[in-house]
């Protein structure tokens, strides 16, 4: 005890200013939470290009964002989706509860199937979109971009249902690309060829026939390509990663970051919350709120299924023609991406904003997703222009490029829906 006191008293004092600087440096050096796959991802990272995904350290790229994109389109790409928020919803009233809070009719979702859905606040504005997995008649998994546990628990009052977040407990991988099926087959997932688009099934892992562990595989993804998503208990994550990488070595499997995935999703015409639209809980300005019909999600709305969150407001907006915006696909002349460009009518009137843009190697077109003010795209689709600022010899040059509204998706790959999937 005496020695301990002596050491403490002889230690040099640090001024408050120096302590604050040390704390600040530690803060910037500190890495965010890692996913269960982080040891494997860190070992492959060459660019050290990280971003914050819901508190997790996720890669924008790992080795080369351009080649990572082509890995998705020409071979097999592995992307860590563990940070995606996941909720386990189960109980006698699970179906009725989800039918009450989401837009689509959950009674039409059969066991071992998945559907894309969204949910709104009471004013009919979109809180988020995501995927709903029906694991059994009374058990579901809801995956989303944002966290909604308090809102879900409030909505569950009166229902015989339990809602629990399982983001940390369940690790997830997206395996996308033309050779993705062959990789799963070679990895020993017998019967995976029977999965059709939006099907799911459980397969043994880390224990074989004894069933010590299992992985849930769904034929889903965010690339518009042949692809699958795999969910496994966090403690079995690394063995699943190693199993896939070993099986895919001869078929060109590569781990990729978000930049490559984002390009693929744009070609597929898919939208991202808080990128292509602002979710209701994040919107500061009232004019940023969006109803499902304003962001291309009107097809989800089932007015025949009874009451659901936002139903009255959505129906009233339709009847009284109060929808103010529309999300569209654009094809733009030239080959310079129009990221965050302003959209004009007749080169003078601002009518919208581009939220995502790229030169598409697959479509061989300059494409974009943009939000326009109505009546544009309804009755006025001609004489649209985008304002692009291109760097030319260390100086920005303003370019006005003609744009036209085109259908989404920008590309449609037959291999995505082929049954059985092709063996590339």
How would you briefly describe this protein structure?
This protein is an alpha+beta fold. 23% of the residues lie in helices and 31% in strands. The termini are far apart.
Number of domains: 3
The largest pleated sheet is described as: 6 strands, mixed
Number of strands: 19
Identify the CATH homologous superfamily of the largest domain: Probable tRNA modification gtpase trme, domain 1
- Please report the first level of CATH classification, the CATH class of the largest domain: Alpha Beta
Number of helices: 11
Output the helix-strand order.
HHHEEHEEHEEEHEEHEEEHEHHEEEEEEH
Distance between the termini: 71 Å
Q: How would you portray this structure in words?
A:
By secondary structure, the protein is of the alpha+beta class. It is 23% helix and 31% strand. The protein has helices at residues 2-10, 16-29, 38-44, 65-74, 94-101, 149-155, 180-186, 237-248, 258-267, 311-319, 414-417; strands at 49-53, 56-61, 76-80, 85-90, 113-120, 126-136, 139-144, 162-165, 170-176, 200-205, 213-218, 227-233, 253-255, 325-332, 342-345, 349-360, 365-373, 384-391, 396-406. β5 and β6 form a beta hairpin. The termini are far apart.
Helix-strand blueprint:
Layout: H1 2-10, H2 16-29, H3 38-44, E1 49-53, E2 56-61, H4 65-74, E3 76-80, E4 85-90, H5 94-101, E5 113-120, E6 126-136, E7 139-144, H6 149-155, E8 162-165, E9 170-176, H7 180-186, E10 200-205, E11 213-218, E12 227-233, H8 237-248, E13 253-255, H9 258-267, H10 311-319, E14 325-332, E15 342-345, E16 349-360, E17 365-373, E18 384-391, E19 396-406, H11 414-417
Parallel strand pairs: 3-13
Antiparallel strand pairs: 1-2, 3-9, 4-7, 4-8, 5-6, 6-7, 9-12, 10-11, 11-12, 14-17, 14-19, 15-16, 15-18, 16-17, 18-19
Helix pairs in contact: 4-9
